[in-house]
């Protein structure tokens, strides 16, 4: 278990869209997103302005791509704290060999831990409340148990996304129903900081009670979601292209977190989204 964050932290975030920040738009930042990892870095920097942060995550990356493209650059950065979450894009594919995935994942975690860095790993989200993604629930449960074994073997720390019941609320999700909304990213940042036992100043207005959606409105929303998000996703799978194929890492080298970035004041997340 991570007992504390080093006085001078060099935080390197690895992974796919979850860590890149998709679903939390900010046109002023590279790739147009912010995300939970930025917010964690900002909170660490409030404690120590010398904190450095790199984010190598790119949307659409499968686990082997994350390992091949991001792990060695991260090792070269001599991090003190590394986050790694990948495999969700593999689980969504028609076929996946989870044991083979975890074999490579295990080796990657071993290399990251060999740097002396604290390593944060994530379980996958429990999609039981989703009519669409609940079909992958069994795969995710197997993946999660193997991730926990890897963490135990190498002394890494697990951020147990599977057990975060607040994500059953559809407002925690972006309109694509696949990525966290701004509220979801802020909440995840708080969860990560709690795992690190690091105090934070993140704030959000309480969510009002959910208003029942009329059946006709739900049907229309589902049709719109299918047209705008599911269709393009299927086309990319058929063409074997990635949503991140033309993107570069948002923060390719560790740099201090700018004071102007953390001076935006308390986070206030909008209540958006219609369901997953």
Automatic annotation (TrEMBL):
The keyword Hydrolase applies. GO terms for molecular function: hydrolase activity. Pfam families: Lipase_GDSL_2 (PF13472). Residues 13-185 form the SGNH hydrolase-type esterase domain. Keywords: Hydrolase. Gene3D superfamilies: SGNH hydrolase (3.40.50.1110). InterPro entries: GDSL_Rv0518-like, SGNH_hydro, SGNH_hydro_sf. This is SGNH hydrolase. It comes from Tersicoccus phoenicis.
């Amino acid at each position: 278990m991570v007992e504390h964050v080093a006085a001078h932290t060099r935080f390197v975030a690895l992974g796919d869209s979850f860590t890149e920040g998709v679903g939390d738009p900010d046109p002023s930042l590279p790739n147009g997103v912010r995300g939970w990892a930025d917010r964690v870095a900002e909170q660490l920097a409030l404690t120590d302005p010398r904190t450095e942060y790199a984010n190598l995550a790119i949307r659409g990356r499968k686990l082997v791509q994350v390992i091949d493209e991001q792990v060695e650059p991260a090792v070269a950065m001599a991090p003190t704290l590394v986050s790694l979450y990948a495999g969700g894009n593999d689980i969504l594919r028609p076929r996946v060999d989870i044991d083979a995935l975890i074999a490579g994942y295990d080796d990657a975690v071993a290399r990251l831990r060999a740097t002396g860095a604290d390593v944060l790993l994530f379980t996958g989200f429990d999609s039981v409340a989703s009519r669409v993604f609940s079909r992958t629930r069994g795969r995710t449960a197997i993946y999660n148990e193997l991730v926990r074994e890897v963490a135990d073997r190498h002394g890494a720390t697990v951020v147990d996304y599977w057990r975060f019941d607040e994500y059953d609320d559809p407002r925690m999700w972006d309109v694509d129903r696949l990525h966290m909304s701004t509220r979801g990213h802020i909440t995840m940042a708080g969860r990560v900081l709690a795992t690190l036992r690091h105090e934070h100043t993140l704030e959000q207005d309480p969510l009002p009670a959910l208003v029942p959606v009329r059946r006709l409105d739900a049907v229309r929303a589902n049709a719109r979601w299918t047209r705008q998000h599911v269709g393009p996703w299927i086309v990319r799978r058929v063409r074997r292209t990635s949503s991140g194929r033309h993107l570069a890492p948002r923060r390719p080298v560790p740099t201090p977190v700018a004071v102007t970035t953390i001076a935006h004041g308390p986070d206030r997340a909008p209540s958006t989204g219609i369901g997953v």
